[in-house]
Amino acid sequence: MAVQDLEIVVHPDRKRSRFQPLKAWHHMQKLIANKEDTEQVFHIIEALNGRSFEKNFAAFVASPEGRQLLKERTYLPPILDDHSWIRKLPEGTVGRAYVDFMEREGLTAQGLVEESLKHRAGQPDFDDDYLWFGNRLRDTHDLFHVLSGYNRDALGEASLLAFTYSQNPGNGVLFIAFMGCRTIGKNAPKAARIMDCFWEGKRNGAAAQKIMRQDIVALMKEPLEDVRARLGIRKPVAYHHALKVLTAHGYSAETQLSDAGKLREPVAA
User: What are phi and psi for residue 2, nearest 5 degrees?
Assistant: First the structure.
């Protein structure tokens, strides 16, 4: 397959993903039970995305930026996990915000690679352009957190996936986002307006330029607020409002999901 001046390589033995809603539901229950069990995310996406991946790839390589990035085929994890060069960047840059986030949360790009490998265990690993694109989707997830302003609490993860859906559509991502917000919102204070976070994430992702098409290494060197302005990334106002209300009622990042279903009274000041 050729796109303008670029020859696209897709292994002939690749099989199209099947639509498996019951499998997705099974893995969603595991994810709700433990939001840190990232392997479940990959199972859900595989079970529901159908041809979304192929469509997203086609849109990516239809853009000049996407074709250039595919030609370069940069593999991001070792670059993102080398904090020595990023720490030398000025305060306020995307890179400094990224390493602060990753170190605060105890995360590495390689850690997400290892979670995805658990999901792919026993499956053939075709070294083609689809693999590179799928890796890039995976490896930019935590950068999406930094750029979008969503934290790693359960509501932040769900809202970010709603944002991600509008950037790279797929039913699996949308299902996780919706179910995450719905589960948190079941008995959260009505004033938190949890589902507003879902809809806001979708709107903000749709309004922003495609982060996947950016030169990530160059992006790390730019001031964070300048990048947000340039890419049209809006502040997650509904999300921050929801966090304020949840905190006032005694919820923490750790209890948003485990306490779903338990009504709480406001915490006395």
Answer: -125, 140
- For the stretch 87-92, contacts whose Cβ atoms lie closer than 8 Å and that sit 24 or more positions apart, written own/partner, are 89/220, 89/221, 90/223, 92/223, 92/224, 92/225
3 membership: H or E segment, kind and range = strand 2-3
What global pTM score does this model have? 0.87
Query: Are the CB atoms for 205 and 167 separated by under 8 Å?
Result: yes
Among 55, 37, 45, 59, CA closest to 17: 45
Residue 77 lies in a domain: yes
Tally the domains of the chain.
1
88 domain residue, yes or no: yes
Q: Which domain holds residue 230?
A: 19-248
What are the pLDDT digits (tens) for 95-139?
Answer: 999 999 999 999 999 999 998 888 676 677 788 999 999 999 999
Question: HSE-up of 24 (CA within 13 Å, CB side)?
Answer: 19
Tell me the torsion sign for CA atoms 114, 120, 124, 127.
negative
